[in-house]
Amino acid sequence: MNHRFKHFIGGATPVLALTAALVGCFSSFSVALADAFSGVLFEQPSLNGVEGNFIVPRAEHIRPPAGAFHMILWQPNPNRSDGMLVPTDWKAGEKTGFYPAPPVDKHQAGYRNAPGSSTVQIDGDTVGAYINSADLSGGSHKFKMMMTPEMSMVAPAQAHPFAQAGRAILVSLELQVPTAVDAHNAGSETYVSADLMFVDPSRGTKISYGCNLFFNGHPHREPGGHIRLDEDSQNMMINSVVGLQNTWLTTEPRSAVSQSAPWRGWKLFRFAITEKNFVDALNALNQRGAAGKASVNPGDYAFAKFHLNAELHFRTSAAELGWSMRHAKVMIEDSALVQQ
């Protein structure tokens, strides 16, 4: 057995050690940003392979740690009693668009070391995943499947991006989604959204702010967005679409718009949540009867998490999704500098 993979086929100790080492550094960094008018809230780091940067929470019985960027698999491997993945060296780039540097089995892990098996990729400034519902023949919770890159902020040091008037949150990332197979219905669908979580510490309100980048087979979506409760997390969800006119999100002119068909090759997405966008969204949340009135003061909210919500549903038909992402960044910016 290659010693490089003792974590993700055995135990969580390396991840927790890495987290402890990074939390202190990130906490100091976040505190410095909390009172700054502009600055970086999150910037995707360079990672040296799967080991120590990948977590299966339901197999390892741990919460995803705060203060470290990592990939998360929410559906344990049914082929192993411990639920963990195994090193793989098949050309998963045929599905994700990304080909890691050799040794490939340092940068890839999957349900099986075989072509077409669900696989995670982590190499340098790029992460990717291919998920195939065929690997979960016994189903899964609500027939969902996801591998997601995530960065949770350390709670005591979470910045309040709108603490000063006139701020905006600017998000940028490069994405490709070469593989998407589904039946184009609520029981079989594939999509990718950038998701930012905001928390009001005094009220306990948690809001997932979804910004859709890809929704397979939906070329004629209507402008606007929707609000609903996520039953699993109990977070309120405010969802809109990059590139479609709405009052909750501002798309920059040089940004790609949300795609409705798979593509190969990097597209740059750049969009903002201005103070006005955020207030409009909070008002809409309250108007639509959210449980417990949320504060409409944007300064009450801390930025708690960034993740790429790359997910498929397969209740009514099989589905596949392959994607890769690089150069993700979340910044505080002056609203006057956001191009509208």
Describe this structure in words.
The chain has 340 residues and is mostly beta strands. It contains five helices and 17 strands. Strands 1, 4, 5, 6, 7, 9, 14, 15 and 17 form a nine-stranded antiparallel beta sheet that branches. An eight-stranded mixed beta sheet has the order 2-3-8-16-10-11-13-12, with helices on one face. The radius of gyration is 19 Å and the shape is globular.
| End-to-end C-alpha gap | 54 Å
Strand segment tally: 17
- What best-fitting shape do the alpha-carbon axes yield? globular
- Helix-strand makeup class: mainly beta
What series of H and E elements makes up the topology? HEEHEEHHEEEEEEEEEEEHEE
CATH class: Mainly Beta
Counting copies of identical and different chains, the oligomeric state is single chain
Name given to the CATH architecture: Sandwich
* Biggest sheet character: 9 strands, antiparallel
What is the percentage of strand-forming residues? 35-45%
Q: Summarize model confidence as the mean pLDDT.
A: 88
Number of domains: 1
The helix content, as a percent range, equals 10-25%
- Count of helix runs: 5
Kindly provide the radius of gyration, computed on alpha-carbon positions and rounded to a whole number of angstroms: 19 Å
Q: Any key phrases for this structure?
A:
Jelly Rolls; 340 residues; eight-stranded mixed sheet; 14% helix; nine-stranded antiparallel sheet; mainly beta; globular; 5 helices
Task: Summarize this structure briefly.
This protein is mainly beta. The protein is built from 5 helices and 17 strands.
